[in-house]
Amino acid sequence: MLKEKLKKYKLILASGSPRRQQFFKDLDLDFEIRLKDVEEIYPPELKAVEITDYLAELKASAFDGELNDNEILITSDTIVWLKDKALGKPKNAEDAFQMIKSMSNTTHEVITSVCFKTNKASALLHDVTKVTFKELSDEAILYYIENYKPYDKAGAYGIQEWFGFMAVTKVEGSYTNVMGLPTAKVYEYLTTLV
């Protein structure tokens, strides 16, 4: 459906995330993956969605002057926001443990920003999902980290894995956003381009 409408465009997904890549396949969209190494550092005064907006745009700016007229570049960034603090990807097992432990028996926000860039313009959208965890034992957290190695995930967990099935008691908002892409919003935005 949308694939047919977008056929004069070329979608470029600048993400190494296997989950984001799978979402684009599952949305039945043709796309090409182009990756650039971008240091994900943001000004310390930024909060919540300001962080993900900044990083999504930073990733897109790495492609300045490189896009063809028919190309639409898509970049994104996801963080977990808890108690006025951003949780990105854990550095190691100890860091992952501390992150998950801090979310035990609380509600946090998962924030994803997506940047769409062409030669002529760029647009930004974001989504916020509230996720509640039950009280978690140290044993369960250690088991998850040891067996699932969630080092490539913001907040050190994947909602689509054993941990999500076991720990999450409530989701308010987009489920796919928690996995790294608010697919309904992305699809809707792409329909406005044709």
List the helices and strands and how they pair.
Blueprint: H1 2-5, E1 10-13, H2 18-26, E2 31-33, H3 49-61, E3 71-82, E4 85-87, H4 93-103, E5 107-117, E6 122-133, H5 138-148, H6 162-167, E7 168-172, H7 175-178, H8 183-191
Parallel strand pairs: 1-2, 1-3
Antiparallel strand pairs: 3-4, 3-5, 5-6, 6-7
Helix pairs in contact: 4-5
Shape: globular
Q: Give the number of helices.
A: 8
Low-confidence stretches: none
Helix content: 25-40%
Give the averaged pLDDT, no decimals. 96
- Percent of residues in β-strands: 25-35%
Order of helices and strands: HEHEHEEHEEHHEHH
**Please, what is the oligomeric state?**
single chain
Radius of gyration: 17 Å
The number of E-state strands comes to 7
Distance between the termini: 12 Å
Summing up helix and strand content along with how strands pair, one would put the structural category as alpha/beta
Structure explained in plain terms:
The protein is an alpha/beta fold and 194 residues long. The protein has helices spanning 2-5, 18-26, 49-61, 93-103, 138-148, 162-167, 175-178, 183-191, and strands at 10-13, 31-33, 71-82, 85-87, 107-117, 122-133, 168-172. Strands 1, 2, 3, 4, 5, 6 and 7 form a 7-stranded mixed sheet that branches. Helix 2 links the parallel strand 1 and strand 2 (31-33). The longest helix is centred in the first third of the chain and has 13 residues, at 49-61. 32% of the residues are buried. The model has no long low-confidence stretch (mean pLDDT 96).
